[in-house]
């Protein structure tokens, strides 16, 4: 039997690489970084045609409940899966799987995505998610979608596909953490896929694998039918879903995906996902450009004028201005950690 399909959106985290715009109260996923709507709202809009609005669940921090609901008109608090504290993605998705199993029964399936991605082709995105969910159910597998790379990127993890299984899926030979630039180029040539963090499985299959493979969550599993406070409070060792389950399981399959996926990890990434002018500038707000090329500018309120420059990132918000380069924008987290606390934790 093929069970009903739910979508779980991971919408926690702050996204410090988007300082000074991103703050604990208004993190990356609640910002209009790609279009005019918050990234979370864009994500949900892509998922509704696949599963229906009532079967989209948002996994987020308890402190973000109200901002999330403001970003998603029509959503109810019952659609929020609130983490009282951060305990790693293995715990978060295990808690979500238990909720899906309660809502949809033992055959209920779930697809898991992050709230802060850009997707170029929404139709192909939904078709790939549906295929992954179907394959996962038919094989009692844990399916992940590996993105066909458009470039070598040392900032991403990779998946080496293994044996072809005949239904579009392949076994996974191995997962590779963020490689060097040289190694990333070689892996792209050898047919590796980007590790996107897109997952699909029957909720009960994930719960079975967590019980078998993830001792870090053993104490929490005793509270899987209790309160969120009891479950997350019993997680002694936070661990990611990749390390805690996917890299340990023999039931993992990968399906390739090509739908213009981008994880929008830095200000510089907006050059790839925002609409650009003829000179390659990606802008938001009141921006005037003269003899300027390949810049990223985001302004809230103030006017920004760029003249005779290229490759800059300029962000203006509430009297704070960040100026760096597209090339260095990937290292912004290091800068933010070195800032005085009042400046780092802008409200």
Please provide a written account of the structure.
This protein is α/β, with parallel strands linked by helices. It has 2 domains: 5-262, Spore Coat Polysaccharide Biosynthesis Protein SpsA, Chain A (Alpha-Beta Complex); 267-344, no CATH class. Helix content is 30%, strand content 26%. It contains 12 helices and 17 strands. The chain has helices spanning 39-51, 65-71, 89-104, 122-139, 181-189, 203-213, 218-221, 228-233, 241-246, 270-273, 332-338, 341-344, and strands spanning 5-10, 56-61, 80-83, 109-114, 118-119, 142-147, 158-164, 170-176, 193-202, 252-257, 261-262, 282-284, 287-290, 296-300, 304-307, 312-317, 320-325. Helix 1 packs across helix 4 (122-139) and helix 3 crosses helix 6. The protein is globular, with a radius of gyration of 20 Å. The N and C termini lie far apart (49 Å).
The end-to-end distance, rounded to whole angstroms, is 49 Å
**What value does the Rg take, in angstroms?**
20 Å
Number of domains: 2
Oligomerization:
single chain
Q: What's the CATH architecture of the largest domain?
A: Alpha-Beta Complex
What is shown here, in short?
This protein is an alpha/beta fold.
Features of this protein?
single chain; 347 residues; alpha/beta; Spore Coat Polysaccharide Biosynthesis Protein SpsA, Chain A; 2 domains; five-stranded mixed beta barrel
Write the layout of secondary structure elements.
Blueprint: E1 5-10, H1 39-51, E2 56-61, H2 65-71, E3 80-83, H3 89-104, E4 109-114, E5 118-119, H4 122-139, E6 142-147, E7 158-164, E8 170-176, H5 181-189, E9 193-202, H6 203-213, H7 218-221, H8 228-233, H9 241-246, E10 252-257, E11 261-262, H10 270-273, E12 282-284, E13 287-290, E14 296-300, E15 304-307, E16 312-317, E17 320-325, H11 332-338, H12 341-344
Parallel strand pairs: 1-2, 1-4, 2-3, 6-10, 12-14, 13-15, 14-16
Antiparallel strand pairs: 4-9, 5-11, 6-9, 7-8, 7-9, 8-10, 16-17
Helix pairs in contact: 1-4, 3-6
